[in-house]
Amino acid sequence: MRSQPLKQLKQATILSLTLSLTLLLPAGAEDPIFGKISLRPGFTPPAGTITGYTSGSTSLPAVVANSDYKGNKCLGFADKAPDYKMVLEQDFPKLQFSLNSGGKDTTLAIMGPDRKIRCGDDTGSSKDASITDTNWKAGEYSIWVGSIDPASQWNYKLTVQQ
User: Fold this and answer.
1) Half-sphere exposure of 32 (CA within 13 A, CB side)
2) Over its length of 162 residues, how does the chain's per-residue pLDDT go in tens digits?
């Protein structure tokens, strides 16, 4: 009779530890949905062009942060797993990320190897998101493409330029 409560306690402990470890995994630790790209200085435009579609109903602020290191709000909804992983093989002095979804209201979040967050929303009069920034360090980056509305499925093309 005593073995049943002990067995239940062990099962509950294992479940608790599993949940705790899952919650401790950093954002971006999941495998990317659409794949991985590697870039080095001098890359040509096709190497910096990726496609996918928005999806998910997880709030991007819950995945990455409420705002990035510059104070830009991280907005929208996406999957918990990043859309892409991007490996920068060397440091880049400047990169520009531009989304084209045909004018849908997209958002963008990028987490670097140092956990530095960069977020983007509307670009000028366009609802498509973009991020332009300097001092991109070599390493692996997680990229989330989101939509302002949860669970919207919009095709996009993301272009990275130097």
Assistant:
1) 21
2) 555 655 544 444 443 433 333 344 445 568 999 999 999 999 998 999 999 999 999 999 999 999 999 999 999 999 999 999 999 999 999 999 999 999 999 999 999 999 999 999 988 889 999 999 999 999 999 999 999 999 899 999 999 999
pTM: 0.82
At 66, the amino acid letter reads N
- Cα(87)–Cα(19) distance, rounded to whole angstroms? 29
CA angle 88/90/94 to nearest 5° reads 75
Q: Which string of DSSP letters, residue by residue, matches 94-118? A: EEEEEEESSS--EEEEEE-TT--EE
| Rounded distance between C-alpha atoms, residue 76 and residue 147, angstroms | 5
Longest CA span, the chain = 70
Tokens 């290191």 correspond to what residue?
69
Contacts of 149 (CB under 8 A, 6+ apart): 77, 105
Query: Residue 85: helix, strand or coil by DSSP?
Result: strand
Residue 150 carries which DSSP code? T
DSSP state of 151: T
61 residue type, one letter: P
